[in-house]
Write a structure and sequence with these properties.
- It is a single chain.
- The protein is built from five helices and six strands, in the order αββαβααβββα.
- The protein has a six-stranded mixed sheet.
């Protein structure tokens, strides 16, 4: 009776090793790509530009204290213990109160007012219509929204949230500008709210 020959295990050929390395490298690149995409979505994909968080960010100022903020308008830092109402304002809001409202998860839209109250300001009027409409159509979603004039602006419009700033010029509030503003609000409202402040 013939004894079957034992087959020695074959060593992987060069071609097979190349295939295995290629698969391994492909999986590695996919994992790296997913990590980069996640970082982009969580940081770079946010609207506006990041502004370094000014410390001590949770400090409540004493009466009479002011702060030199690292952006105009401010986006973080020590702030007043006082707050203001959400919604449309006809007067500027002090920087220290602005920051406190941002800490509560708010978004502030500000515009550089015209030099004379007698002049028409289509940007201000357009922003008032937009904010009024958003808050009327879905108050709970847009309750933490503030609109106010802010004379120090270099651009006509500034959007602020905690640690984020978007400034740009406009002569009127077009549908494209509305989309830009709404995108900023929806991405960043309540994105930072350490005190878990709620709508009134």
């Amino acid at each position: 009776m013939a004894v079957p020959k034992k087959h020695k295990p074959q060593r992987p050929t060069f071609a097979r090793r190349v295939v295995r390395w290629s698969i391994g490298l492909g999986i590695f690149l996919v994992v790296i790509g997913l990590g980069v995409w996640a970082a982009y979505q969580s940081f770079l994909a946010k609207p506006g530009i990041p502004i370094p968080i000014q410390q001590p960010a949770s400090y409540h100022l004493r009466a009479g204290e002011t702060v030199q903020y690292n952006s105009i308008p401010p986006t973080s830092g020590p702030h007043s213990g006082a707050t203001t109402d959400w919604g449309i304002h006809d007067l500027s809001i002090p920087n220290e109160i602005q920051v406190h409202m941002l800490e509560h998860g708010g978004v502030i839209i500000q515009y550089r007012p015209v030099e004379s109250p007698a002049l028409d300001d289509p940007v201000a009027e357009g922003l008032k219509r937009l904010v009024g409409r958003l808050r009327t159509e879905n108050f709970q979603k847009y309750c933490k929204l503030i609109l106010a004039p802010y004379a120090p602006l270099q651009k006509k419009i500034a959007l602020t949230a905690w640690g984020r700033l978007d400034t740009f010029d406009a002569e009127a509030i077009t549908s494209e500008i509305e989309q830009r503003i709404v995108y900023f609000i929806e991405k960043l409202m309540n994105a930072y709210n350490p005190e878990r402040a709620r709508c009134p």
